[in-house]
Amino acid sequence: MSDIPEIVTVGQSEIIHHEGYDPDIVSPFVPAIRVVSSARLVFISGVTGAPVYHDHPHRPEVFDAIPADGAAQARTAFEHLDQALRAAGAERRDVVNLIRFFTNVAEDQDAVNRIQAEWFGGHIPTSTTVEVTRLATDPRLRLEIHVVAAAPPA
């Protein structure tokens, strides 16, 4: 354990660890990330396993092809994040904040943590996990992910 803050630069941000940091502890989040001033902040709307573009009001039949399990929905949600990041000129390592909304944390969190770790490939953003009664898009959805990224300057 270190009592000295550790700062590691990654892309357009600095990962900050504070007193009590132990690199041997496996964690899906870091306590703080500071964005450097030249970065362009990218805010990505919550993504799910549902098609990103869909009608409002929602039509239930649009969501009939969504897999029922949380892991499959997570894989699709992370694919949707890739699309949004690329379109915004950002990469996975540029993600500085991740908010995950689960409808059942106990059933899905471990699988989503594994998929998330694979997707990030060693990068770890700040993160918050919340359990909600249901997601707004469709009651069959189990996970929604909201992201903020720090893209390189244009």
UniProtKB/TrEMBL annotation:
It comes from the Bacteria. GO terms for cellular component: cytosol. Coiled coil: none annotated. InterPro entries: RutC-like_sf (IPR035959), YjgF/YER057c/UK114 (IPR006175). Pfam families: Ribonuc_L-PSP (PF01042). CDD domains: YjgF_YER057c_UK114_family (cd00448). GO terms for molecular function: deaminase activity. Belongs to the RutC family. This is RidA family protein.
